[in-house]
Design goal:
Blueprint (H helix, E strand, L loop, with lengths): L9 E5 L2 H11 L3 E6 L2 E6 L2 E7 L15 E5 L4 H10 L5 E3 L2 E8 L5 E6 L2
Parallel strand pairs: 1-4, 5-8
Antiparallel strand pairs: 2-3, 3-4, 6-7, 7-8
């Protein structure tokens, strides 16, 4: 049996990789560790997020794609994280009765979630 030890990276297809890179690095604090024409690989803690230029032909998705990407954050409160996103012009939502998560979208419409542990 294969024993996996974690997730190396997920791939998000983007219409404008430069715009997406700016969002993920400047708003969400990810760090780029490799990039080339049409691809940017970033670290989010010990996990990776890769941005790929949306191909001219629709990518293979099995018809489901990604529902959302949940990201842990080390500090802040619901109010401070929400305010920071809103200062950057990002519409924020939540889950009723759950003050530990914030939902929003990146520039390409990928649904993201911030989760902070107490």
């Amino acid at each position: 049996m294969i024993q996996t030890s974690g997730i190396d990276h997920i791939v998000l297809y983007c219409g404008d990789v430069g715009r997406a890179k700016k969002f993920y690095t400047e708003i969400l604090g990810m760090t780029v560790y490799r990039e080339d024409d049409g691809h940017v690989f970033m670290h989010a803690g010990n996990q990776g997020v890769a941005l790929f230029k949306l191909p001219d032909v629709a990518p293979a998705s099995g018809g489901k794609d990604l529902n959302h990407l949940a990201l842990n954050v080390d500090g802040g409160s619901y109010e401070s994280l929400k305010a920071e996103l809103e200062r950057n012009g990002i519409a924020v939502g939540g889950r009723p009765g759950d003050d530990r998560c914030i939902y929003f979208s990146d520039p390409d419409g990928h649904r993201l979630q911030l989760i902070f542990r107490r």
